[in-house]
């Protein structure tokens, strides 16, 4: 029996296995050179969770992440005093599909896959996450995109939906993330949790990587998590 009886490792993607700041700020610098690309990328990311929460609250109809990102991109561009044409908007939204993995991510996933099923569990769509995986060499067994259940984390349907899809109990799934709020939600629905430090996630802005004593594991990166799990 492996650690805690965990059969499935479910990974957050944006920030946990990929470096969204470097990828998106780089795309902004190329496509909208007249703005501060770092500030623009951070402000766009800050609008990510609020619009997903509006969907889950029923204020907005369910739409794919690309559509929501297009809406928040328009807002951010307006706040920065720029107007983006359709081609620029599409290029920036699709840049989320090719953000780089953290240096340890692909190898960490490969090692963790030896004894367990490894899955992306993300608010991105299956198509987006497939592109991301191919770009970075992520060897997922399963890609759990939000369009499978038409809900966004931290909704119950996402965490428990993956467990149901794989025919395992929630406590046989461990959520792996660098965002404690994601892990708190997962744990509230019966999943195990592992926190992964990503101090550079916000491109130099401070980030709380203390995690929580309620997590089952706390790792400095995915290779460290693999060592702790005996992989």
From TrEMBL:
InterPro entries (UniProt xref): 2-HAD (IPR006328), HAD-like_sf (IPR036412), HAD-SF_hydro_IA (IPR006439), HAD_sf (IPR023214), PGP-like_dom2 (IPR023198), S-2-haloacid_dehalogenase (IPR051540)
Pfam families assigned to the protein according to its UniProt record, in alphabetical order: Hydrolase
Xref: CDD domains: HAD_L2-DEX
Alphabetic keyword roster: Hydrolase
Signal peptide per UniProt: none
Annotated GO MF terms: hydrolase activity, acting on acid halide bonds, in C-halide compounds
Gene3D superfamilies assigned: HAD superfamily/HAD-like, Putative phosphatase, domain 2
Similarity section: Belongs to the HAD-like hydrolase superfamily. S-2-haloalkanoic acid dehalogenase family.
NCBIfam families: HAD-SF-IA-v2, HAD_type_II
Name by which UniProt lists this protein: Haloacid dehalogenase type II
């Amino acid at each position: 029996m492996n650690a805690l009886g965990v059969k499935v490792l479910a990974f957050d993607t944006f920030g946990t296995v990929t470096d969204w700041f470097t990828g998106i700020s780089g795309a902004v610098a190329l496509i909208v050179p007249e703005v501060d690309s770092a500030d623009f990328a951070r402000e766009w990311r800050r609008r990510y969770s609020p619009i997903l929460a509006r969907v889950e609250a029923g204020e907005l109809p369910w739409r794919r992440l690309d559509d929501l990102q297009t809406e928040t991109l328009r807002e951010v561009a307006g706040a920065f005093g720029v107007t983006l044409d359709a081609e620029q908007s599409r290029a920036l939204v699709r840049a989320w599909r090719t953000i780089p993995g953290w240096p340890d991510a692909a190898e960490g996933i490969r090692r963790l896959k030896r004894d367990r099923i490894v899955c992306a569990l993300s608010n991105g769509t299956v198509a987006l996450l497939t592109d991301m995986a191919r770009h970075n060499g992520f060897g997922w067994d399963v890609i759990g995109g939000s369009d499978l259940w038409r809900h966004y984390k931290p909704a119950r349907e996402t965490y428990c939906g993956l467990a149901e899809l794989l025919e395992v109990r929630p406590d046989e799934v461990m959520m792996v993330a660098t965002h404690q709020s994601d892990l708190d939600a997962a744990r509230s629905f019966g999943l195990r949790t592992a926190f992964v430090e990503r101090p550079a996630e916000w491109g130099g802005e401070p980030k709380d990587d203390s995690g929580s004593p309620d997590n089952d594991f706390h790792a400095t990166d995915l290779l460290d998590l693999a060592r702790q799990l005996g992989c």
